[in-house]
Amino acid sequence: MVTLLCRRPDAGYGSGSSSSGCGAGDSEPSAEPLAQCIGITQEVRWRSGQQCCSENSLGVCMKLCGQARQWPHALQLFAELMAAGQPDVVSFSTAVSACEKGSWESAINLLDCMDRHQLLGDTVIYAACCAACGAASAWTQALQLLRPLRQATLRPNTILMNALISACGNGQRWEEAVAVLREMNETSVPTSAVSYTAAMAACDWRRALELLEELRLKQMFPTVVTYGTLLNVCRGHWEVALQLLRDMHRQKIGMNIIVLGAAITACEAKWEAALQLFGAESPTVVTSASLLNALAQDSQWELALAITRQVQEQKVDLNVIACSAVMSACEKGQQWSLALGFLRLMQDKKMEVNVVAYSAATSACEKCKHWENAVALFYELLEHQLTPDVIVCSATISAAERSSSWDVLERLLSDIKHCKVQPNVVLFNAAISAAEKAGYWQGATDLLAEMMQGSIEATSITYSAAILACSAGEQWQVALGLLEQEKEGRLVPNWVTYASAISTCENRLKHKQVPGLLMELQDLVLETEKL
Description:
This protein has helices spanning 2-7, 31-48, 55-67, 71-84, 89-98, 104-116, 123-135, 139-144, 146-151, 158-170, 174-186, 193-202, 205-217, 224-233, 238-250, 257-266, 271-278, 285-297, 301-313, 320-332, 336-348, 355-367, 371-383, 390-400, 406-418, 425-437, 441-453, 460-472, 476-488, 495-507, 513-530. By secondary structure, it is mainly alpha-helical. Among the domains are: 1-119, no CATH class; 321-420, Serine Threonine Protein Phosphatase 5, Tetratricopeptide repeat, CATH 1.25.40; 423-531. Keywords: Repeat. InterPro entries: PPR_rpt, TPR-like_helical_dom_sf. This is Pentacotripeptide-repeat region of PRORP domain-containing protein. Pfam families: PPR_3.
């Protein structure tokens, strides 16, 4: 939008236009805040008694749109400002700030447009642009902004460098995040607890704790946000999480709901500790979801149901995350009817049921051998216009194995392809195994060939299922060919694979191949015994 804007200020930017080039692919702004922004603009126009607002009035409206996260409307107002006359640095800065939470491309385009108008930006506008890039994990673009900043002889400040660290953190680039922090120390740009906290968010738990020690050596004080960040990166390390909570208590740092939720999540591997933390405060949506996830990890479905009843009695409305966690616990406990019941409960409460919830219900049905329900859930998911992921597809195919019907499986595979799901080895293994159970050896070998064409590496499980299918179809030559192919791929066939190949050869009276296969099987057994 901004590029067009610079070339042709009189271009139309109506609210219904989709051809303005402004953030193509971004979601439409929500109606209520946008209506408020438009209402404010119209009121300013009415009070000023003119068709066009003054620059100051438009600037105020742009700022309000930015605060309401309505960046497309802010850019429409900026276009009006451009058409009215020469924009200044303040109006550009306001427009960039409005893009901070929505469109990093538009923010960078505004910087380019500003340069074409021969206006010199300041560190504030560059910091806002870095923040916009960071919000979208566009860390490369954020770092590239340092070059024009320095060419303009501007000195980076703490806010800008913190935004750069956050951008690297959001992009999972811990080395770059720490490098920016080091540059701050080397160039005498003041660091703060915010700087170190942003860098911690990019690191694993060990490096994050090292940064905590460095922060203390600099006689800075960690904040509740610092500890919340540390607890997030310590997920799965409950001992470290509990130590951090003790540190907070010793330093008299109050714990909020977000930090408590992060602490409970960090204790997923030790649900007893998570349960104890949960009992320390009144339950909330955040802490309930965190605890239920921890219980799901250890298949504690009965306790998960008890906690659900407890929080509902305390008038806490569970969200999709919490309900999906309960379903996951039921799935791991092979309680398919309870998982399905929770799915229906979510639908009755008009909750926005997501793929994770369907995945848990489908997996529960698959594990309990209710393949018809699993397949029905898959098609229900499609009817609700949700895009299935590889997990729910694999679970559905595994469930369809029990139908022993190639027709059911073939239809499923065709529909999954239409969903443009990116298949992985787990999905192919499930499909090949299903083909084997359906007694369709050709389907198994076709799937293996498709897998190779897609550059997906087969495993011993893949070959074992395909060879079993060929064995069931008495295709001894194909089975031996796959066995050789497996060995050429530096995979070690298991004893089931050899047994299938030997059985096939014996059934087809191909006894010459059997001694060699038996020797290979004997070698495999000896190697296994050594291990």
